[in-house]
Specification:
alpha/beta; five-stranded mixed beta sheet; two-stranded antiparallel sheet; 8 helices; binds zinc ion
């Protein structure tokens, strides 16, 4: 199929295939479907210089530079993230979250000054996710470190979230650290990322000891 770049051009750019590819890939993003992807692509095409090309550059930069922190799993451009490297933070507490989005939610709420541990999901029989798929071993290692006095489990109030909390509780049994979890003020089935700052602050303040 001929290109439509300009008269006399014979490159292999097939506009329709490229466009459809872009729309299909965008449509796989959470919260988008083919319809929203189509609208987004059209909007970008109308704002090529101001939006589309800078966006492509940003994506390339983030994809090539951002990686997981070797200690906590947070995303940053250094091996150890800026939170782990920040000596002003309370090094004795580790807040365990499912995903980086939850860490961002905690940071937005500005209610917590300790360190984090990003599991990378929850245990899930349905999705076939077991302990080896999550950063649980690294958490157990960190919990044994002398500086650590409390592990706060800030996991979703979903079945999978609570199963994961219990599994971690069992893994850490016998260690000197105190294991707490967010208060039950969280809506059932609620995910951290969707909580408003006030609810999150309350849930953290009223955290209780995990009973295994
Ligand atoms: Zn880190």
């Amino acid at each position: 199929m001929a290109c439509h770049c300009h008269p006399g051009c014979h490159c292999l750019f097939d506009m329709h295939t490229s466009l459809e590819n872009l729309i299909r890939k965008l449509g796989r993003l959470p919260g988008l479907g083919p319809r929203s992807a189509r609208r987004a692509v059209l909007f970008m095409l109308k704002n090529r210089q101001r939006l589309m090309l800078p966006l492509a550059e940003d994506m390339h930069e983030v994809a090539s530079k951002v990686r997981a922190c070797v200690d906590c799993g947070n995303l940053d451009i250094t091996d150890r993230c800026s939170i782990c490297l920040d000596s002003r933070r309370d090094q004795s507490r580790i807040c365990v979250v499912e995903d980086v989005g939850d860490l961002w939610a905690m940071e937005r709420a500005s209610v917590y000054q300790g360190l984090y541990h990003v599991l990378g999901g929850t245990l899930s029989a349905l999705d076939g996710r077991g302990p080896d798929d999550l950063l649980i071993d690294r958490l157990v290692q960190r919990a044994r470190h002398n500086d650590t006095i409390e592990i706060i489990l800030a996991l979703s109030a979903t079945v999978d979230g609570q199963t994961t909390a219990h599994y971690i509780g069992e893994k850490l049994q016998g260690s000197a650290v105190e294991i707490t979890r967010l208060a039950r003020g969280m809506p059932v089935g609620g995910e951290l990322d969707y909580l408003d700052d006030g609810t999150l602050a309350q849930a953290l303040k009223a955290r209780s000891t995990l009973e295994v």
